[in-house]
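Bug #77: duplicate submission created two jobs. Keeping one. Sequence:
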Amino acid sequence: MGRPSFLRAYDIRGIVEHELMLEDYLNFGKAVGTVAEDFIVLGRDARVHGEICEKAFVSGVLSRGVDVKSVGVTPIGVLSYAVEKLGAKIGVMIGASHNPPEYNGLKFFKEGGEYSKELDNSIRQVFLTKKFKQFNWKSIGSYEKVEVKSDYIDFVLSKVNIKRKIRVVVDCMSGTAGVLIRPLLEALGCDYKIIHEEPSGLFPLGEPEPKPSKLKELMSLVSSGEYDIGLAFDGDCDRVAVVDDKGRFIEPEKVASLFINFLKSKPGDVVVASINSSSVIDDVASEKGLNVVRTRVGHFYIINAVKEHNAIIGFERSGHMTIPSLRLFDDAILVAAKLIEICSVMETPLSEFFENLPSYCFKEVSVKCPDSIKFKVVKRISEILKSKYKKVNTIDGVKAYFSGGWFLIRASNTQPLIRISVEAENRRELDEKLEYAKRLVLNTMKNYRM
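Kept job's structure:
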């Protein structure tokens, strides 16, 4: 048998009872119960099958004599906070972030509520080998529900200082933000409107990913002129999208630029950015004497680089953002609260700040490519581009720089795709380089299939 399809690069994720079976949840529970030295803290997102997946998983954990403290349906940042607050050495999130409603999965946190590739690998190894701790019917673990939301809200309030009342529209996208966003906005003293607040695993608007095409209602409400900012959360609240006071979607690099402008820093400090993010961040960092460190795509890599370089911020183009002065985690609720604070101290509207940032043309496309050859194809393309371009970065795929822009060709870690990202100063050059990159991918794939 091959490697299970639900063992993804960054987490465990698959279609329930098609790829990822309830028996798998039971066995992951046994694996966690085998690795755990003490109790675990557990949370889940709003998916319809979340409860049955949780029960299967919990049965596995308890069967190995390990206690479970459950925080229920919750944003992932609240679970991470709970792991730290309760002093657990392992935290587990049952959920599938922005994936369609038929998906579910698992993420693991170590002591302190941080992601841990090492813990993830050790749990996977026990799961795959089925070398579980022996069952002892006299030593079954106990299950307890715990409430941490009010403590978490107090924690968020301790991290921000609101100077004036901010008018905000929040789109919960039927995800976990709805379980605490209302009391949080009340505590922050906002004038607010919330849409799609009730958590629903059916995701009536479609998969809960806060991209422009899904935020038309939010953008329309904010553009009425009655609000200072719009915020939209993905399914498990590890990403927040921003809409400015004119109702325009703001790219994550520009949101990061806003933070860089307001966070305390000194020349030589580091900003961490994924390899596929815009050069806007380089321009803004350069003005403040900051250094930009690029990483592979994936929150594991971002957070590790933030720790390694003691960075003031780390982010991905997808919207994951980590601000260590708040918490070393991509907690979108905490990031949103900081955005509200920034709005409250700004003397001009958000839109004015964003309009003054450098502007580039950007486009990303995907080309279908079998998993069996996608990395080989990108490696061959890397060799070709190294001979043609003076500046090339190969930390994740291959990124070639040209005057006024760059293009990146990288294999997806989770799907049978090769992704092409292009940024240029004008549309003509963007289209030319995109066409060149697509031809390069297709021709190289053809050679591998012959």
